[in-house]
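A reminder from the course coordinator: this example appears on the midterm review sheet, so study it carefully.

Given structure:
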């Protein structure tokens, strides 16, 4: 799995990971007995998950795994050698070293749901809470205090661990640990690692990593839950970190850092080790072990900011782990991925996950480039290096100072060794964004003696500006500005310029804007389910960080930043986990689906300039970019109506995916009869998506009243272009709280021949106080 921050151009396609993995294994062993590590997934345990079980019983389960695998390998002893994890708590299955022939045989066994490779995945302050409305002019809004800041809720993340010394996890003012907590603080090889009444638990899971490509890594960096990366500390503090005042990064972004549920307790499950070049850092077998334990330990919310390429649900450790979590009422929030802006790139597609896209907030760390003709360009940077005051330096394009042996393209991108030190010395270089890390371009410029850099966006990047901790005076500017700057530099004899130190600008418009990197829909596994579900702040988010390395994570960077800025859907995900924590405190009896519905039906789809949210200056965003819209926690706490889902609904969903009743029995304790006929468009999801539309279709939804009673809601529809939407009945009356009402939505084409492509509309139920909005997405076949 991939941690999902947006780090320069360090994007590696999964295809590459797989081929590298296969290549290594092919080289290491003869083809006929190629051993690799796999997960063998067996569904649920045949026991009531609410009942406490003894260690003896776990041993019995483990034994059953040895017997099952032993029957294929010839002996129980061989099975004991091969198995490196037995999942005994909630998830039933094991991880083992096997060859392809063995896998083929085991897959046929009637108790086996799936067998899949233990593959690596990648990991995908705070103004953001004010931006989403929990604060206004620095004042806490009543809904936040009503939800008691997430008190008594336990939020966990599966990530790269945690930096326990961070002030975001201090336990001052926290009472005793909630009695329901059953976890531990496993410090492994790091005696300085500790938990407290705020950070109540930590564990690490590394066997899948070390049997995979991770065997090349520094072992001691993954033998404790300590976060040597920074990603896990950042995401956990965004979901549930304390209020910490006086936080800034190199003097900018001053403010009080905090999580969405600042009074929640938190726990870290480290499932990701140091990143191996060319591979991910989080392995399926470890992710499943983390889920199994977090469920057992008694967490309420799981935030998981990582993912890989979307595939079948039961060959995907996040889909499997979260399926077992939601059965026990645990909300699981995941990131959508950083593979945008291409279509159909969104991952974490299971309908029981809340899948989060990333967008900007109304804050920028601005820096100006001032030219000798008084022309100036505004860009962004988080560099702590400044040019001497008001001293102008020659400015040149990197291409114009290229080394003799390199191409124009390599020089333009400021690649390593592409500039000539004699020509570049003492100058500000203009580099194009792309291919290599943005901070690395600055380093390359510094290595040839340049005094600063300007990174100009390409046309594809448009206006997307990411503030980076450059090690030289630097700024990043938009495509349009970049072209104007290059034209000036091109056409002027001896131009000179000056770069100002970064400052914090608030209230910038428009915001939010969808991040270019945020993965897009449609959902390529189950197109009837809209993904992503929602968007939240994920650009330039300040939160707690590791102090194991500097912000650039390279040996030369000796700076340490207890709070740091990062961007990615990884950063957006814990914002929603923090809000889910508030909802858990406020409505402890609500199901994960109810909490998700509350979050999805109360969003905004307009930005702070009161226009529809955009993907940049020239493109309106759609539900394929932001799902139901931008998170609005104040309203989520009082949604009025919810679209709920039960375990049976998810089992029916599995029937629709063509799992037969015997297989479905493996997920549950009691027999289940698949309803017939069954249609995926009727899953009671808070959004409506019709793929392959080619004529009238009716879908059914059921809402539950959780607002006031009596209550009367009327339907308001925005028709997608060329379509007509009829809702029956058009009025829903509720006499009591908890009452449920069903309605039908019929979609017809008004001019069938004229329509085609993706069409977007919405349905909103209004009672004068609540607006319960669902996006409607129709993919017309012609
Ligand atoms: C391995 O990791 C540990 C813990 O992070 C660190 O102290 C040590 O310096 C690392 N060793 C190497 C060779 O990188
Ligand atoms: C930000 O905080 C730092 C340290 O607390 C302080 O030195 C600086 O003056 C502050 N800047 C602003 C603009 O408030
Ligand atoms: C630039 O602005 C400064 C102060 O505003 C002024 O003194 C100077 O003459 C201007 N230079 C040009 C080239 O316009
Ligand atoms: C630059 O000028 C500002 C204000 O004029 C001053 O506060 C700052 O210390 C100066 N910086 C340097 C590096 O001289
Ligand atoms: C170009 O030549 C220089 C000097 O010989 C060398 O340092 C640099 O690495 C070379 N660059 C490339 C891209 O080959
Ligand atoms: C700058 O000049 C080069 C030729 O020297 C040309 O290829 C390029 O298009 C010019 N760029 C702009 C933005 O004018
Ligand atoms: C929805 O449509 C179905 C099938 O046409 C019908 O049986 C059902 O009564 C309708 N439900 C409502 C609430 O109108």
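Designed residues:
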């Amino acid at each position: 799995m991939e941690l999902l921050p947006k780090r320069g151009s360090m994007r590696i396609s999964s295809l590459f990971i797989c081929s590298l993995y296969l290549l290594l294994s092919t080289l290491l062993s003869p083809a006929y007995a190629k051993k690799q590590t796999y997960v063998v997934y067996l569904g649920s345990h045949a026991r009531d998950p609410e009942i406490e079980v003894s260690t003896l019983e776990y041993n019995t389960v483990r034994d059953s795994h040895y017997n099952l695998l032993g029957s294929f390998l010839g002996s129980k002893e061989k099975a004991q050698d091969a198995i490196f994890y037995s999942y005994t708590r909630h998830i039933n299955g094991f991880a083992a070293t096997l060859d392809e022939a063995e896998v083929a045989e085991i897959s046929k066994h009637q108790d086996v749901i799936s067998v899949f490779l233990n593959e690596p995945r990648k990991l995908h302050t705070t103004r953001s809470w004010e931006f989403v409305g929990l604060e206004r002019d620095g004042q806490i809004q009543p809904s936040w205090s009503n939800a008691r800041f997430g008190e008594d809720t336990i939020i966990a993340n599966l990530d790269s661990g945690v930096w326990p010394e961070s002030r975001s996890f201090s336990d001052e003012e926290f009472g005793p640990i909630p009695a329901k907590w059953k976890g531990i603080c496993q410090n492994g090889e790091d005696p300085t690692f500790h938990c407290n009444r705020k950070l109540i638990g930590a564990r690490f899971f590394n066997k899948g990593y070390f049997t995979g490509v991770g065997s090349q890594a520094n072992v001691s960096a993954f033998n404790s839950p300590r976060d040597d990366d920074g990603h896990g500390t950042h995401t956990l503090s965004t979901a549930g970190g304390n209020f910490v005042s006086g936080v800034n990064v190199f003097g900018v972004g001053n403010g009080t850092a905090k999580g969405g549920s600042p009074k929640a307790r938190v726990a870290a499950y480290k499932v990701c080790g140091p990143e191996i070049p060319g591979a991910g850092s989080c392995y399926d077998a470890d992710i499943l072990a983390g889920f199994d334990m977090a469920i057992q330990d008694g967490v309420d919310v799981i935030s998981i900011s990582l993912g890989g390429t979307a595939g079948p649900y039961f060959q995907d450790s996040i889909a499997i782990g979260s399926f077992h979590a939601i059965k026990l009422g645990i909300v699981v929030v995941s990131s959508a991925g950083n593979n945008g802006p291409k279509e159909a790139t969104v991952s974490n597609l299971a309908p029981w996950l809340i899948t989060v896209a990333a967008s900007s907030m109304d804050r920028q760390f601005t820096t100006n480039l001032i030219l000798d003709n008084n022309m100036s360009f505004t860009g962004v940077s988080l560099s702590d290096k400044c040019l001497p005051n008001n001293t102008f330096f020659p400015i040149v394009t990197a291409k114009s100072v290229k080394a003799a042996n390199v191409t124009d393209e390599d020089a333009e991108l400021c690649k390593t060794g592409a500039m000539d030190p004699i020509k570049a010395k003492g100058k500000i270089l203009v580099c194009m964004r792309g291919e290599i890390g943005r901070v690395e371009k600055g380093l390359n410029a510094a290595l040839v003696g340049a005094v600063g850099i300007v990174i100009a966006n390409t046309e594809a990047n448009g206006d997307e500006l990411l503030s980076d901790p450059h090690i030289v005076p630097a700024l990043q500017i938009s495509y349009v500005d970049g072209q104007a700057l290059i034209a000036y530099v091109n056409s002027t004899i001896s131009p000179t310029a000056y770069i100002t130190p970064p400052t914090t600008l608030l209230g910038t418009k428009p915001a939010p804007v969808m991040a270019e990197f945020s993965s897009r829909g449609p959902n390529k596994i189950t197109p009837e389910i809209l993904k992503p579900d929602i968007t939240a702040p994920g650009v330039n988010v300040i939160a707690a960080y590791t102090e194991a390395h500097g912000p650039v994570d390279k040996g030369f960077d000796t700076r340490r930043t207890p709070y740091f800025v990062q961007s990615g859907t990884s950063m957006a995900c814990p914002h929603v986990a923090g809000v889910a924590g508030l909802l858990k405190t406020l409505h402890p009896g609500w199901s994960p689906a109810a909490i998700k519905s509350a979050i999805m039906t109360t969003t905004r789809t307009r930005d702070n300039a009161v226009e529809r949210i955009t993907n940049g200056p020239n493109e309106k965003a759609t539900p394929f970019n932001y799902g139901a819209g931008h998170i609005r926690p104040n309203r989520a706490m009082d949604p009025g109506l919810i679209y709920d889902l039960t375990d049976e609904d998810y089992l029916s969903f599995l029937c629709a995916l063509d799992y037969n009743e015997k297989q479905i029995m493996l997920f549950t304790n009691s027999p289940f009869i698949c309803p017939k006929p069954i249609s995926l468009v009727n899953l009671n999801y808070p959004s409506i998506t019709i793929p392959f539309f080619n004529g009238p279709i009716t879908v059914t939804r059921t809402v539950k009243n959780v607002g006031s009673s009596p209550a009367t809601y009327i339907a308001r529809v925005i028709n997608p272009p060329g379509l007509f939407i009829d809702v029956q009945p058009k009025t829903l009356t509720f006499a009591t709280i908890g009452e449920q009402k069903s309605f039908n939505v019929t979609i017809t084409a008004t001019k069938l021949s004229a329509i085609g492509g993706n069409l977007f509309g919405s349905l909103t139920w209004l009672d004068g106080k609540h607006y319960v909005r669902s996006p409607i997405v129709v993919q017309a076949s012609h």
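Residues 55-73 form the longest helix (19 residues). The chain has a mean pLDDT of 90.
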